[in-house]
Amino acid sequence: MPSSYPCPQCSRPTLYSISNPFRPFCSQQCQILDLGAWASQSHRIEGDALGDAEESQGEDWQA
Ligand SMILES: [Zn+2]
Question: What are the chain's domains?
Fold first, then answer.
């Protein structure tokens, strides 16, 4: 008897089966949504790092 679990993206009951190519997600849409969230998070981290570097240079010029 195959086990089911809630999809990490939409919480819909999903079958954990080898025939599901989008595991652990229920569908390709949920898989893409999760990849998009991961990409936007990494972009945000890069932006913060650049902002800190610019601020440090500004302090050096003022001092
Ligand atoms: Zn889903």
Answer: 4-62 (3.30.50.10)
